[in-house]
């Protein structure tokens, strides 16, 4: 008998009454109901325990998913910082910007469009690269043509020399003159190859950068030149100190001075070298009283292998080297000129 029912029976019923058969049957039925209640109670307890575990697991999963979503939003906000995102309504500062799902979607949509635009720009760059490759191909053709020209001359001259020797061993003919022409063509080819090499390596060779006196550089340059007796070179005193590559700066002045000497056609040639100080940079000039250049050719002379006249001593690459060197220093180079009066070449170098 259930302990609780047994206690109640002993408290309120006598032993005599308990012995009554009908009462015993009733008490037995009540006892079974107690047992059924206990069983059902235990089942409910177990069910509640199982439900609590499931709820706990579901809650744990929900927290994990919430953490994942939070991390995702943080990563997206980091992406926004990386992409320097700005421009949302209200012009919020990026360090206090808190994007919800909608704004993130809008941002991603905007960035997708930006990526499409960048791909279009990439296609344009590829097209530009294709054009440049074609220009490089044309450049190679010009180089090969100019390199082969002195070789053809050498071949012809040596053929003539051989014929002269075969015709007469006693007669000198024009052998000496032909040999001079051969040497001149060989020198021209050597200068041309050196010019091409210098032009192609201006932005590639890494040299020591230091403070350089332009007066010292010009003194070295002028000592290396064979300046004609009828040409006078005037150099301004106290030229500035430039932070740069000594070899390249010497190349720059050598080519500009050499160009000025070649095209002086006066009985008394004058070359003036000076500078003016500008805000943030030095502006140098090299002035001559030579033949001068027509205005339509002011830009053309700075392109490789472009010569205004058929000068045997000119390679057509000196001024293009000058432009490339100046551009490497973020400067500019240009000229002013009048036919018959001379030219002034200007270029700028940063302080």
Describe the model.
There is one protein chain. By secondary structure, the chain is of the alpha+beta class. The chain has 3 domains: 3-74; 119-201, Helix Hairpins, CATH 1.10.287; 206-350, Histidine kinase-like ATPase, C-terminal domain (Heat Shock Protein 90, 2-Layer Sandwich). It is 60% helix and 14% strand. It has 8 helices and 7 strands, in the order αααααβαββαββαββ. It has helices at 3-12, 15-18, 21-82, 101-167, 175-201, 214-224, 246-262, 318-328, and strands at residues 209-213, 231-235, 241-245, 269-278, 281-288, 333-338, 342-350. The strands form 2 sheets. A 5-stranded mixed beta sheet has the order 2-4-5-7-6. Helix 4 packs antiparallel against helix 5 (175-201) and helix 6 (214-224) crosses helix 7. The longest helix is centred in the middle third of the chain and has 67 residues, at 101-167. It starts with a helix and ends with a strand. The model is unreliable at 85-97 (pLDDT under 50).
Please specify the SSE layout and strand pairing.
Layout: H1 3-12, H2 15-18, H3 21-82, H4 101-167, H5 175-201, E1 209-213, H6 214-224, E2 231-235, E3 241-245, H7 246-262, E4 269-278, E5 281-288, H8 318-328, E6 333-338, E7 342-350
Parallel strand pairs: 2-4
Antiparallel strand pairs: 1-3, 4-5, 5-7, 6-7
Helix pairs in contact: 4-5, 6-7, 7-8
State the main characteristics.
351 residues, alpha+beta, Helix Hairpins, Heat Shock Protein 90, 3 domains, five-stranded mixed sheet, two-stranded antiparallel sheet, 8 helices, 7 strands, rod-shaped
Low-confidence stretches: 85-97
**Overall 3D form:** rod-shaped
Approximate strand percentage: 5-15%
CATH architecture of the largest domain: 2-Layer Sandwich
List the helices and strands in order: HHHHHEHEEHEEHEE
| CATH level 4 superfamily of the largest domain | Histidine kinase-like ATPase, C-terminal domain
